[in-house]
User: Fold these one by one.
Assistant:
Number 1:
Amino acid sequence: MDVYEAVTTRRAVRGFTDEEVPRDVLERVLSAAAWAPSGSNIQPWRIFVVTGEPLAQLKKRAVERVATGQPWDEREFEMYPRELKSPYAERRSAFGKERYSALGIAREDWEARQRAAIANWDCFGAPAALFCYIDRDLGRPQWADLGMYLQTVMLLLRAEGLHSCPQMAWSQVRETVSDIVCPPEGLMLFCGMSIGYEDPAVNYIRTGRAPLTENVTFIED
Ligand SMILES: Cc1cc2nc3c(=O)[nH]c(=O)nc-3n(C[C@H](O)[C@H](O)[C@H](O)COP(=O)(O)O)c2cc1C
């Protein structure tokens, strides 16, 4: 698989089979992903890979917590600005519409949307997950490094025939994640990522992208 194919076939998959992901494949992907760039090569990502019984426990606790309406953990960062301005607000709302219509859920059916959202904490059925932490003392440029690293992981997973779904949703139950992964003091959770083989029976609509001219400007003579 070449890089273009890895980029264009990567998408947030929200339905996985229970086929296990071999440990050596995960090690190969994460060893190669370590070549992602970072400012001054400080490599600020701290990754915890969870599979097997610990993941089953984590899913169970998180799903129970959310299903019984327990409050979210206190936020360590805002996922989005409170007032999302144009064009981001429109793009976010278009994504919500696409996502729920793919599942056959009406926008106003809050309960069905809630049920669909709960699948986040079951890792959409995936048998493996990683959790990406960063040192609380690091700043915005290092958060950007995390993004480059995580995309590198997701593209390498494609090369192995695997799919993924990055999930900030895990930050809402970060203390439950901490109970399982026991991160050292001083780290904060950015996101989780479900990893596995795609379940082809799960419906999805491919998200679109803004045309090149909306986000890219060439300055030339
Ligand atoms: C940092 C980050 C956090 C995300 N968090 C979630 C999440 O919690 N749950 C989810 O279902 N998708 C999540 N996504 C997936 C996005 O919704 C998805 O990438 C976006 O809609 C574009 O679709 P595509 O990845 O299928 O191309 C996240 C993506 C990123 C990059």
Number 2:
Amino acid sequence: MYYRAKNLAINNGRTYHVAAILRRRGDVIKIGENTDKTHPRFKRQYDDGTWASHMHAEMNVLRFAIPGDEIEVMRFSACGDHITMAKPCRLCEAEIKKSGIRKVRYTNWNGDWEVMIFDK
Ligand SMILES: [Zn+2]
């Protein structure tokens, strides 16, 4: 399963290779990668008025989330041989909270898992 996530992320054609896994009671519901495509719900406008033309991996799976789900985010180096920092950015973090997700696991610079818990 992590292998599938990795394949998606590595082949996404982007500089960053991030995969997010949406889990419901331990089951994998959806695996998403960061892409060039965006989704209307997550359209973002920068301060200078331009629109963001990409979607983070977390956003990619959030559409399928229900409250109580968990998300795992992992980032792979360009060559795919190691795992690195994948902490959700502030925008993703806000959207994750809004979706009712209470627990996020993400990989840190050492490739280890860290956990983020959101209180209600
Ligand atoms: Zn983000």
